[in-house]
Predict the 3D structure of the following.
Amino acid sequence: MSYKIALLGIYHESNTFINSPTTLEDFRKGHWLKGDDIRKEYLNAFHEIGGMLEVLEREKIEVIPVLYAQATPGGIITAEAYSVLLKELLEELDKVLPIDGCMVVPHGAAVSESFLDMDGHWLNLLRNKLGEQVPIIGTLDPHANVSPLMIASTDGLIAYKSNPHIDQRQVGKEAAALMVSTLQKKVRPIQVLVQLPMAISIEQQYTSKEPCKSLYTYVQKLSKEKLILSISIILGFPYADVIEMGSSFIIIADGDRDAAQLVGRQLKSYILDHLDRFLGKKINISTALSLLKESEKPVLLLDMGDNIGGGSPGNSLHLLKALEQFGLYKLFICIHDPLAVITATKYDVGDKFVISLTDMDKSLYEIEVTLQQVQDGHFEETQPRHGGQVNYDMGKIAVISTAKGNVVMLTSRRIPPFSLRQLTTFNIFPRNFEVVVVKGVNAPIAAYGPECPTVIQVNTPGVTQADMTAFKYKNRRKPLFPFEQLKQ
Ligand SMILES: [Zn+2]
């Protein structure tokens, strides 16, 4: 029997603590693709869409890419942007109906001004349009805040199993394989969500180290239980003031809700027994500087408060200022500052001038620099890296150096540090520095870890600071560890 499958997604991680919203322009600057352009961009990429296409096309299933829109993590999506994207998504889908199944690619932490549970909203509209008989199966980023509506509206959602997310293509293949066996009536997926009374600290979400390592090993063991088709660990995205915020599990069983619920109870009790392990260390800037002397170089300093992959502006200067003042180690840092790029590009390479950088708290930092290069900031990544994207565009960039020998790349567009090609394309190599600052927590380690033998996560201030209890939430569920202590 031949099948026809639609493939679509709106993908965003929305930080509700950021004042500036995510607009249509942000999606235009990101990835907003229709039809065959989706296939061209992702067929060979380390992205879930590539994995889905590979499996479905191998099975001789007709796959119709409909629409895929993604913006760099940022503030809440405007009502206008969501309404335009949704209208286009549904209109494009209408053109290809009827279909036998629908592959979906939500992130799982999208918030719009009009719908706090934006992913639940569009997945539910899909379900209403397609009916109960058409399977809706897809992937999730484990930095999702999963709602009951997302689960009720789909037949199976499978999250990436690694953070940094280097297994996106593999998870796309798993989701597509589940679609195939569901269509062939070999399995009947039943999905259960277990929301936990806790949120794992962003610092503790690196999956190949403890405490995640043991948790993932335990999940792997439970995945082999009879009738269990998939278990997803949802680490959660702390920077969203929504009722779904927090960690959870999604268990998919073959036709047996009780089997899924039993595994859910086992996992919940594992987490409750190990709560304190998921809190994190919160190393401040002065402690991080004191660790540099004894550390093998180059040292990767992760600027957790300005985590671009968590929506942050990418312009925090806390670590640049501290390292300039410290003066002992040669540093590289990339900063998103379009105005500074305009200033710098008025000069010629080799010119010395004073530049004003604007910190995330709007304070100005003036520093004498030399212009090293001005470039068009497009680069390509073909290795398996967090995010699975191939094409990146920083807009125009300027590379400057300070009197102390520190090197700063200034970008016009805000690009998360997921790829080393962001540097090497412009002949900048981490090994030429003693300290490399990147604006992230875990995701950049896939690219930078092999170059930097020492990795230190720094608890810098900002809209993605590691201590989630410093934010004011109105909507989160309660009790939720570490905000509330749980009675054992
Ligand atoms: Zn993620």
